[in-house]
Structures are given as C-alpha cells and as structure tokens.
Amino acid sequence: MDKNVEQRHPYVELARSAIQHYLQTGKKLSPPPDIPDNMRFKAGVFVSLKKFGNLRGCIGTFMPTTDNLYLEIVQNAISASTSDPRFPPVSLDELKDIDISVDILSAPELVKDINELDPKKYGIIVAKGHKRGLLLPDLQGVDTIQQQISITKMKAGIHPDDNDVDIYKFTVQRYR
C-alpha cells in the first residue's frame, strides 16, 4: 500500500473514507454542504480494491446512477468493499492493506467496426438483449481485441460464438 497519503488523489481518498466510515458505522458517508467542483458532474465510476496486488473487489456503474460524482464514488466504494459476490466483505482491519483505484468512465459510444477498439485504451460493453458485460481497459493479460470481446461476452453470459451483439467503447481516467 502507498503509505504516502498526501500523494493520493482526492477521489481515492473519498473512496477510502467512504469504506472506512461504512465499516465503522454501517452508514454511508454524507456529502459536505459544498461538494467540490471536480465532483459535481455525473459519470459512471468503478472502484477497484487490491490487496497485496490481488483483486479484492471491483464494483461500478457504466452510467451514472446518482446526482453527482461524489455520491457515485461513495456508493461504488462501499459496494466494492461489501457486495462484490466474488469476495467476502472487507474488514476494517484489512483496509490498511488495500490499494484503491477509482476509474471515471466516459459516456459509452457504439462501435461500428471492432478495429476501432484497443484494449489498452478503451474499455468495452458487450450487449445482447438484457445481457450486458463490461471490461475496463488496460487490464493485465488482456492484450488483444478478441481477448477483450471474449472475456466481456463471458461476463455477460453471451455465447462466445454469438456475434450478433452490440459493442460500446469508453475511456477511463484512472486515479490511484
């Protein structure tokens, strides 16, 4: 974990504070009366937790579900630490060992040709009917467009050979 707290981005500090407050009180962190300007806009947000370099939780929204970025970060930080079905809830004691990243997503754009994609630059959403899967960009081990599409179809529960899908791309600003 980065011990130098002063170098953490305010989005990451907010996510950490939201998790700590929730684990201590069982309540969501309330927004301040004057939310900072850089947190007043709406955007999709993913909060990822890693413990000793291994994924420990990741939850997010590809479209905003709250009134502003502040609330979106708080909501998704709590969800990543308590509601990711792949992991048990984070304990207050282990929070000190967890590194947090916050990804702010651009609005998704429909892809007309898969050659527009680049797994290092764009995340994708694959959709068919009510099934949707999302994969963030620049993930270790995801090096090709085909790998990215295949993994995202699997996450969505879409058959790997089904090419009658909509693909959307988006960018992220990652903060650590």
Structural account:
- It is a single chain.
- A 4-stranded antiparallel beta sheet has the order 2-1-3-8, with helices on one face. A 4-stranded antiparallel beta sheet has the order 4-7-5-6, covered by helices on one side.
- The protein has helices at 10-25, 69-82, 145-156, and strands at 44-51, 54-61, 98-105, 109-110, 123-128, 131-135, 166-170, 172-175.
- The model has no long low-confidence stretch (mean pLDDT 95).
- It has 2 domains: 5-105, Hypothetical protein ph0010, domain 1 (Glycoprotein, Type 4 Pilin); 109-175, Hypothetical protein ph0010, domain 2 (Dna Ligase, domain 1).
- A hairpin with a 2-residue loop joins β5 (123-128) and β6 (131-135).
- The longest helix is centred in the N-terminal third of the chain and has 16 residues, at 10-25.
- It is built from 3 helices and 8 strands; from the N terminus they run αββαββββαββ.
- By secondary structure, the protein is an alpha+beta fold.
Quick summary of this structure?
The chain is an alpha+beta fold and 176 residues long. The chain is built from 3 helices and 8 strands, in the order H-E-E-H-E-E-E-E-H-E-E. The protein folds into 2 domains: 5-105, Glycoprotein, Type 4 Pilin (2-Layer Sandwich); 109-175, Dna Ligase, domain 1 (2-Layer Sandwich), CATH 3.30.1490.150.
- Widest beta sheet: strand line-up: 2-1-3-8
How would you describe the shape? globular
CA radius of gyration is: 17 Å
CATH class of the largest domain: Alpha Beta
Helix content: 10-25%
Helix/strand order, N-terminal first: HEEHEEEEHEE
Structural class given helices, strands, pairing?
alpha+beta
Q: What is the CATH architecture term of the largest domain?
A: 2-Layer Sandwich
The biggest sheet amounts to: 4 strands, antiparallel
**In CATH terms, what is the fold-level topology of the largest domain?**
Glycoprotein, Type 4 Pilin
Our estimate of the beta-strand percent is: 25-35%
